[in-house]
Design brief:
There is one protein chain. This protein has 184 residues and is α+β, with helices and mostly antiparallel strands. The protein is built from five helices and seven strands; from the N terminus they run E-H-H-H-E-E-E-E-E-E-H-H. It has two domains: 80 residues, Pleckstrin-homology domain (PH domain)/Phosphotyrosine-binding domain (PTB) (PH-domain like); 73 residues. Helix content is 49%, strand content 20%. Helix 2 packs antiparallel against helix 3. 12% of the residues are buried.
Length: 184
């Protein structure tokens, strides 16, 4: 475990994050992304276009089946492929998130290792057996939170994750140190 030379005014605590905390971080990052790009981003418009194409394909398929009932046996394979494609389109975001969690969250990495943080009026220090980092409060770009954790973003998608339970004993000081950091 890393040790910090602590000034008397520093607030310190130790904690260990879990895979569930990583999932929460992913959700907060996704929420921030949606806020940043807005509802009608290019990504959203591409998704609408894709679903419109799927709708047109299903409508066309139904019409061909109605107009040419003798071809229904041959078109059965097309129906199965269309259902499989729809299943893949709907399941893809969930599958990709599970793959990211499986391959990006190393069991012996820094995120899941025991960590200690120290808060002072000037900076936050985070240390683990994997290394130490000191970030001045001016280097924290944004602050977000959920019911379990505080997230101090040092980049658009990278954040220091601090459990509320670790902050709770001195939450007033934490709020004092982070009040100038933009929310969300």
């Amino acid at each position: 475990m890393a040790s910090f030379r602590q000034k008397p005014t520093q607030m310190t605590a130790s904690f260990t994050l879990t895979p569930a905390d990583f999932t929460r971080l992913q959700k907060v990052v996704a929420r921030r992304f949606r806020r940043k790009v807005g509802t009608f981003s290019w990504l959203f418009l591409i998704q609408v276009l894709a679903w419109m194409c799927i709708g047109i394909a299903v409508a066309t398929y139904a019409r061909v089946m109605r107009d040419f009932p003798e071809a229904s046996r041959q078109l059965e394979l097309v129906a199965y492929l269309l259902v499989a494609a729809l299943f893949v389109v709907v399941a893809m975001p969930y599958l990709s998130q599970a793959l990211v969690r499986k391959h990006m969250l190393a069991p012996n990495g820094a995120f899941l290792s025991p960590q200690t943080f120290a808060l002072s009026p000037e900076s936050i220090s985070v240390g683990s057996t994997k290394g130490n980092m000191v970030v001045p409060w001016s280097g924290v770009l944004a602050r977000d939170e959920d019911e379990t954790n505080y997230y101090l973003f040092i980049d658009a998608m990278q954040a220091l994750v601090l459990p509320r339970t670790a902050i709770a004993p001195r939450v007033v000081e934490f709020e004092q140190y982070t009040h100038q950091i933009p929310r969300g």
